[in-house]
């Protein structure tokens, strides 16, 4: 089964870390990515640009309007994702639990990816 692991964190939190802690955090990410590549579980993933570069499209007075910013009522912002193909939701959650951002106040959302038939709905 394929899962999308959505990375939510507090923008700028890495700048608050010491250089040593930042290096350790990115080292952990590299290790997880290497492991998932070796096991064949990694499908893909990307980090996202700073939320200040975000545009949001909302319906305003019946018309789509493009607005600056994410405008989320949350301390966390969507920061990136991993797509994995693993045996169970428990394995996907295990991978998410190891993601270092979680220790720094972030969260990982684990969501199954629908197949082309969309039978999961």
Give a brief rundown of this model.
By secondary structure, the protein is an alpha+beta fold. Helices cover 26% and strands 34% of the residues. The chain is built from two helices and six strands.
Question: Which segments are poorly predicted (pLDDT under 50) over 5 or more consecutive residues?
Answer: none
Run of helices and strands: EHEEEEHE
Topology, number of strands: 6
Biggest sheet record:
4 strands, antiparallel
CATH architectural category? 2-Layer Sandwich
Residue share in β-strands: 25-35%
From the N-terminal CA to the C-terminal CA, the straight-line distance is 15 Å
Question: Into how many domains do the coordinates divide?
Answer: 1
User: Please, what is the CATH homologous superfamily?
Assistant: Dimeric alpha+beta barrel
Class, according to the CATH hierarchy? Answer: Alpha Beta
| Largest sheet, spatial ordering of strands | 2-5-1-6
CATH fold descriptor: Alpha-Beta Plaits
* Alpha-beta classification: alpha+beta
Number of helices: 2
The portion of residues assigned to helices is 25-40%
Report Rg.
Answer: 16 Å
